[in-house]
Sequence to fold (152 residues):
Amino acid sequence: MDPLNFLGFLEENGVPYNVVVNGSSIRRLEDILKLGLYPEKVVKSLLLKYRDGALVASIPMNRRLKISEISGLLRSSMGFVSRDEVPNYGYEAGAVPPIHHRNVTMYLLDRSFLNYSTVYSGSGDPQKLIEIDPSYIVKNSNKTIIIDNISE
Fold:
């Protein structure tokens, strides 16, 4: 299955963004700190399976997802999508953007991102991190739910 083009999706929808890192893999908190970015402004997008399919939960890079909270809200057991399965949703592991995937029924966005005029997110390419206004993440997916208390 061919990968999706998240940056192309943004351009087609007139969403402004800046590529802030190009050419080095950014997958860990240490990578973010070396770049001088604030981890609470970096979107970590995680793919999970649940009763109705798959969802993407986007939380700050320096926080952990509270799976039990989401599971309780959705009244469904859930678990992380394996690294080998991530390409089925359009991207490779470590490069998952906050929206625009195959076979995803819902997007959860940590409300804290809306406190910032811009945040940093995966671009679909493990070599690129983008800066984007978080309101565009919400506006460009009719399946995004802004939620409190999904990370700790």
In short: The beta strands are 18-22, 43-50, 53-60, 78-80, 106-110, 119-122, 128-132, 144-147.
